[in-house]
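Task card 7
Instruction: Convert sequence to structure tokens.
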Amino acid sequence: MALTATVYTVDVELSDVDRGVYETFSVKVAQQPSETDEFMVARVLAYCLEYREGIGFSKGLAEPDEPAIAVRDLTGAMLTWVDIGMPAADRLHKASKLARRVVVYTHKDAGRLADQLRGERIHRAEDIEIVALDRALIADLIDRLDRRMKLGVSVTEGHLYVTLGDETFDASLERLRLA
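Output:
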């Protein structure tokens, strides 16, 4: 018997001062059985930090050539390709040919990822952004995972604040470039 995805409903109050984005939205997140909690939480945070009109999750394992998250315009053209974790150089090469902007949110060692990718053949490598998500923040959120959650997500001056229940967690957002 095949295992099914666990569906989380996340209600978000977003206040991204750095980008001037203030929104309240609800998103359903399907966590596949092969997906770690760390990956899923990183995916939710990336969705919040990239939130804008046209954003959406991919179909996951069913579409391996698609990004974890994409931002598309009204014609369906991909504006932003968002990957999670430690994507391979060939994947980012393809992504940078398909989208105007490519960003990787990693819950792993961002410096190691950047080192692995430097010198690889990647189209417009100098434009690819890597955002390091704080591992302690991810762990704190995993400890409080629930199938229905309300998150307050605030970003100001490159610092991330996440409120879950009556607790607030914070971390710096480290941004790296391959060039």
